[in-house]
Amino acid sequence: MSNSTTLTTDDLDRRLHQRGAFIFWNVLTEEYFSGELIPGSLWVPVDTVGREAKRLGLSPDAEIVVYCASPTCPNSTEAAEKLRTLGFTNVRAYEGGLEEWKASGRQVGRLPAGAAA
Question: Number of folded domains in the chain?
């Protein structure tokens, strides 16, 4: 069940098709990142989310959605907690991650070879 800090696969799919931009990050560490991304997202490893949010000059109320590999992967929860600790108030985790996204039959993209976060 979804709550105010998490999204289900259907929630995320609806959100991706609505107007209005939001920050959408795959927060897998370099060790586990395979290059796969949910369309519309960028790769920002969990240990760099604070630095990236600061670099982008994000507003504390910016909508940020983070995800990782699967429901058992801790990176999305860790990234969301880090961002909240830094004062971001509109952070949500898609805890199903790539595993649930792909299992639902939805498309994934790939980070171009040689592209950096």
Answer: 1
Question: Which residue range is the domain that position 77 belongs to?
Answer: 9-107
Q: Provide the 3-class DSSP secondary structure of residue 6.
A: strand
Q: Is residue 17 in some structural domain?
A: yes
Q: Is the pTM of this model over 0.70?
A: yes
Is position 1 within any domain?
Answer: no
- In angstroms, rounded to a whole number, what is the distance separating the alpha carbons of residues 85 and 93? 15
CA dist., res. 75 & res. 91, Å (int): 14
Q: What are phi and psi of 16, to 5 degrees?
A: -70, -25
Q: List 12's β-bridge partners, or say none.
A: none
**Strand residue runs (E) in the chain:** 23-26, 36-37, 42-43, 63-67, 90-94, 109-110
| 8-40 pLDDT, tens digit each | 999 999 999 887 789 999 999 999 999 999 999
